[in-house]
Amino acid sequence: MRLINLTPRFWVAASLVIFTLIVGLIGPLVIHVDPHATIGGLYDKPNFGSVSMWLGTDNAGQSVLANLVHGVRTSLFVGLLAGAISLLIGLVMGLVAGFQGGLVDDILMGFTNIALAIPSIVVVILLSVAVNHSTSFSLALVIGVTGWPWTARAVRAQATSIRNREHIDVARLSGARWVNILGWDVLPYLFSYVVMAFVLQMTSAILTEAALSLLGLGASGSVSLGIMLYWSLAWGSVRTGAWWAFLPPTLMLTLIAFSLLLLQASLDEVFNPRLRRGRSKRRLAVAGTPAAVPAAGIVNEPILEGDRS
Amino acid sequence: MDFAKYLGRKAAWYVLALFVALLLNFLLPRLIPGNPVDTIVSQMARGGGASGEQMKQIYAHYMQQFGLNKPMWEQFLVYINQLAHGNLGTSFSQYPASVNSLVGQALPWSIVIQLPAILIGWIVGNLLGAVAAYRGGWFDRGAFVGSLFASAIPYYCLAIVLLYVVGVWLGFLPVGGGYSLGLTPSLSFSFFADAITYWWLPFWSLVIIFVGGQAIGMRSMAIYELGSDYVNYGRGLGLPDSRIVRYIFRNAMLPQITGLALSIGGMIGGALITELVFSYPGIGTLLFSAISTNDYPVISSITLLITLAVLGANFCVEIAYGIIDPRIRAARSEG
Amino acid sequence: MTERMGRLNPTGSRLLDAQHLSAAYYTPEGNRVVAVDDVSISINEGEVLGIAGESGCGKSTLGAILSLTAREPLVVENGTLEVDGKQQHLGPRSKLPRTWRGSVVSLLPQGAMNSISPTMRVRDLVFDVMRAHDRGVKRSDALDRARDRFEELGLPGRALDAYPHQLSGGMKQRVVTVISTLLNPRLLIADEPTSALDVSSQKALIDMLLQMLDNKIMSGVVFITHDLPVLRTISNRIAVMYAGKIAEIGDAEQIASAPRHPYSAALLGSVLVPEPGFRNRRVKGIPGSPPNLINPPSGCRFHPRCGLAMDICKTDEPPEVGDLMRFSTCFWSQQHPGVPVPVDKVVPAEEATMVDASAPELATAEEGV
To answer: Does C56 contact A303 at a Cβ distance shorter than 8 Å?
Structure first.
């Protein structure tokens, strides 16, 4: 395993992501308000009187703040679930194709290439029109089932190159079943790719859910950031200046997308040091010892002695 | 490999993909429970004044029109046949408007905000990325974070913010639509002058994001190239920085050009929600209303067009690679 | 026996003076690794100075400093270069004149394989190089001059029109050599030019370098390599580097036959050379490995591996024993001036048959038949 050097950028990204997670997971518990309960009229302005009115009400007289935190939770849920589904399918397809090679590889990759060629937004729209989601679970399923091709192709490329490495041959010769080989020998090398792929899939899933909801294809029964935006647009909150109805979900969505993408970029730097700027651009080849010596040695500046005449 | 053979294989795959897409476009909307003709007829009935007998006739007539009384596979053949003739069908909710005319009206609006945005975004973004990679230091850090932010904002979020800040709060630019009420689209100067004010905001909301995305990509490529031997050697021979940057540009360009081709291919479906936010009369708004009225000829036509454009762009890029690639592939294998 | 016999001897007038060169790498973890530690060398007109040593001794870094091509994470911390009466100070904030590179000092890099951008032809690079130093030069003139130079050195003119991937490895190396000397630099610094080549390509390259020197295309060569037989073939003088410092410097023959530094002796003792008299010698490696330069040993840096080490070697920096053109940095040499080091005593007896993994490459090179 390589020496993983975490950059400041990574910590910024990680803290933003954790912040989002806290809002989504703990938020609804702390803000103990029912998002579906009517607490006021159309677009009541925020006032700091009661917690539920901190962000005013939306078009249905419901608490924007409550909807917001529940919406974050839903978006995260969809993102995680759909991302996991896509990752799983893509991982399995890619590993099997890359590792087995031959006809299996050709068939699986042919299937993947066609799936890749057809724009996923199209499939997702068509499926959503047909299925008419009522829960975010079905939405997550649809998104998950359409997002795997990219991961499958990336994983397969890696698996193919790993397949021919020596320790795999050793495992094979020692009689291990190929399922075990995949799990114990191949997968650890793919770790960096798996992590990055999952972050990407999750980001894409969250954004796709928001896009679908904005188009009107969202889960009708639940609260999500996309649905909040949908209603805010439909009821002209932008035009009437009811900023509390559309700005919070917009900013929250932006925050989620930005933090996840920043995380992905920083992970890319962690796993590919060449992309790092500044003092660390090249791996050093100091004779004998790798640069893992922790103590900053105090180097003696020798004074040149002896005559030079 | 023989180029014709390469071309043939690629073409076969794309045809296959197209077929699958057609199938999906056909089948999925038809999985919606319920019958769109019911909707139309019941709407007419609500409008009042049709007797039971007339309703049955109208119903039968529409079923005939839309071919909904035939078995599935026959419907599919009819669908393919119509497509081959360039006929995208008739709209359900805006009957008797043909889908062709609806799409034809909406498409230019979509293209006019996207094409300039893609082109300008590409040029400016690549320049920004290359300069940032080469200069390094604070400029690079700022450009990187800025571009990352710009490319990470969901484009509709940026659209909403821009709309609010510039359109409502500051009141500079109009808040929705493609042109002022009361005007009809015409090729006159006064119409253009008016339409431009509606064009600014959607355009800016797209171009900022494109610039960000291109800059990030180009910067990564350029950083990678900066570590190359030829950069160091050029420096060692006394070549000025400007010349070396040109070498880097040339090597980092190819993936960026394919990115441009693919972006252009994605133009039809590229700004669906941006249009929604600005009530811009493009494909996005058309799709939105079609979805809300279950108008599936329009829905499947739009998705089909999106697919066609993307597949077409992909295919062109593959051909281009087949022509350019052997030399570059050989060059990279030596290097 | 060696090709050098047929050439003019160096004139003795000074070509380049490098004083107190120091450079360090800054690692991602924040360590400062001094790769070249206060090195001073001089090169005469018409001379080939070979620089030898194990990987990591600092010879490539020295080459980068001399050719003005040091870049992050390598920082040149101190030093002065004097050429043709012009002095240039080297330091972290020094502005190095761009035009010196290529026309005063020029680098022939390691890994010439990738030194030409894959998307340009050789002639494009040639034109750019010439134009960088003479803004008004016309393309046709530039290419004519290049073509003449190519033919003068036995390279086909059509190589100019090729893309890099169309040239073989040996041809690419020679093309890059010509490009590096297009502007007739005073000093050419060749960094491991023969390492990636087969034996016949090595000979062709060495022949070309010597011919260029004869034709006064350049006035001196610094030849950096870990390949000792090649070094002996081409060099007038040899400098042996260890752990960022010069261990010994002197005439090639003297260093080869009568080394005065234990490290030089051990280095030469670990090489297989098909010469008469060598057949009975056993191959001895140098036990141990070069020191970690973040925290080098105190006193003489070689003392942990030296069989002749005395107490003073562990505590004090050894002096330069000898004169500017020939010296050895060693206490033993100081106590036995003029006496070659007994090789058998340098490497402890029980390690004698081990071939150490860190010993320089065993290479065979033709000895100029």
So the answer is: no
